[in-house]
Amino acid sequence: MRLVSLAHLTAIELDPPALIHAAAEGGFDAVGLRLLRVTPTTPGYPLWENAAMLRETRAAMTATGVTVHDIEFLRITPETDPETLQPFLDTGAELGAKEIITAPYDPDHGRMADTLGRLSDAARDRGLGVVLEFFPWTTIRTIDEAVQTVGQAGPHVGILPDSLHVDRSGSSLATLASLGPERLRFAHLCDAPVLPAYDEETLLHAAREERLLPGTGQIDLGAYLAALPKDLPLGVEVPRTARAHRVGALELVRETGSAVRSFLASVGR
């Protein structure tokens, strides 16, 4: 049976214990936790610095049965040193996470591949995988560029496709479908309008603040899902900031869970 996880960005204002309880009410199996801050205006939750919240997070997992699937969001920059990331890695291992999401922010792709390889070794020592997510505004824009970089990084670094970024980067679904299980271990799902062209502001606004529930936009999600193994875990990442302000994060998560289950059933996935 496919695992469906709630990505933290969907309700980023909820701290990890609250997100886990909301995910349970929304019918999700797991969550992804944003332990590292990504932008100056959105929170991260470094649980290694907050022992009380870490205990509350574990208690929420026990009470609900919701697991932690992944932790995020590690920007790979020229300065990234896996040796300094032990608290982040150790916390992920303590929570039982499966994957660490990384993002490409080093213009030197050879150096980035080396960093990813060293990070993967450190993560594997703790039972964690490493995946590289690609974005049309970063130094790795398409799935083919991601394939090249992770190939240099070693055999264990995966690729994380997101339906929004796959569509807006013009990435190849054939390449996506060709990925083996060592590279493709989970995927992100959302919907959005399809426009003739996108500037960076438009790309970032959709990615960080306003996406659409699956089946309510114009992305060909049927083709996207058909390129994925039928049992591949899915992380649902659908920030809807305006809606969250109107109905609150908990109701937003309930709506999201219901919509995703209905959509997946409708497409037989």
H/I helix tally:
11
Using DSSP, what is the number of strands? 8
- Percentage of β-strand residues: 5-15%
Report the top-level CATH class.
Alpha Beta
Mean pLDDT: 97
Helix content: 40-55%
Q: Residue ranges: pLDDT <50 for 5 or more in a row?
A: none
Structural class: alpha/beta
Q: How would you classify the quaternary structure?
A: single chain
Detailed description of the structure:
With 269 residues, this protein is an alpha/beta fold. It has one domain: Alpha-Beta Barrel (TIM Barrel), CATH 3.20.20.150. It is built from 11 helices and 8 strands. The protein has an 8-stranded parallel sheet, covered by helices on one side. Helix 2 links the parallel strand 2 and strand 3. Helix 1 runs parallel beside helix 2 and helix 4 crosses helix 5. The longest helix is centred in the last third of the chain and has 18 residues. It is globular, with a radius of gyration of 17 Å. 45% of the residues are buried. The model has no long low-confidence stretch (mean pLDDT 97).
SSE arrangement:
Elements: E1 4-7, H1 16-25, E2 30-34, H2 51-64, E3 67-76, H3 86-94, E4 99-104, H4 109-124, E5 129-133, H5 143-153, E6 157-160, H6 163-168, H7 173-178, E7 187-189, H8 200-208, H9 221-226, E8 234-236, H10 241-247, H11 249-266
Parallel strand pairs: 1-2, 1-8, 2-3, 3-4, 4-5, 5-6, 7-8
Helix pairs in contact: 1-2, 4-5, 10-11
